[in-house]
């Protein structure tokens, strides 16, 4: 069965610190991978996605994620966080078949200290 | 263009009452999804509509929950005889083609349901 794990439930960082949020998935086939962000009081927005090609994907606001197939991982990174990055981050995976639904992780809450 | 819209944005109801939540997807999107997000938790899949196909209702938690979609437009999620554990944010998302391997979902702002 398809599943997504985000092991960090709450991450607290100071401004300018580097960020890496973990995401591991379980699926016996080719996958598409997503990171969504939910800023306080706003709706879920797509941050970046991986379908194929270069495993290092760049998204909006300086975020990037690397797909490591051998580790079933799609970790989200940012070299220097800002207070405005405070949000909830969700990793999601969709199998490469039409019958596969997108599955979301439980989310990681990121708090940035100014 | 316009994104996914949901109404109402907030709904407070009494235990035992029925509620109806509405979702307007992005025009031209054939797929529509409903999710539930309880406080501090991830997204829980409820139901998925794709074009004229039979909906995937595998995520509906009980027979008190139902959803309808008119063609490829508006959808309504109905919760009958609401219970306190139904309190959550109900999110709607739409996408161009849910059967596509490269499908991407776009979310609405959600409806915050509080059952007293």
Give a description of the structure.
The complex is a heterodimer of chains A (114) and B (116). Chain A is mostly beta strands. In chain A, the strands form 3 sheets. In chain A, strands 2, 5, 6, 10, 11 and 12 form a 6-stranded mixed beta sheet that branches. In chain A, strands 3-9-8-7 form a 4-stranded antiparallel beta sheet, with no helix packed on it. Chain A is 0% helix and 53% strand. Chain B has 116 residues and is an all-beta fold. Helices cover 0% and strands 46% of the residues of chain B. Chain B is built from no helices and 10 strands. Chain B is globular. Chain B starts with a strand and ends with a strand. The model of chain B has no long low-confidence stretch (mean pLDDT 92). Classes of the chains: A mainly beta (114), B mainly beta (116). The interface between A and B is medium-sized, with 24 and 23 residues.
Note the main sheet of chain A. 6 strands, mixed
Distance between the termini of chain B: 37 Å
Fraction of helical residues of chain A: under 10%
CA-based gyration radius of chain B: 13 Å
Spatial shape of chain B: globular
Report, as a whole number of angstroms, the end-to-end distance of chain A. Answer: 41 Å
Could you report the average pLDDT of chain B, rounded to the nearest whole number?
92
Mean pLDDT of chain A: 92
Which consecutive residue ranges of chain B, at least 5 long each, have pLDDT under 50?
A: none
**Greatest interface:** A-B, 24 and 23 residues
Radius of gyration of chain A: 14 Å
Summarize the helix and strand pattern of chain A as letters: EEEEEEEEEEEE
Residues in helix, % of chain B: under 10%
Structural class of chain B: mainly beta
Estimate the strand proportion of chain B.
over 45%
> How many helical stretches of chain A?
0
Bulk shape of chain A: globular
The low-pLDDT segments of chain A are: none
The SS-based structural class of chain A is mainly beta
Q: Using DSSP, what is the number of strands of chain A?
A: 12
Number of strands of chain B: 10
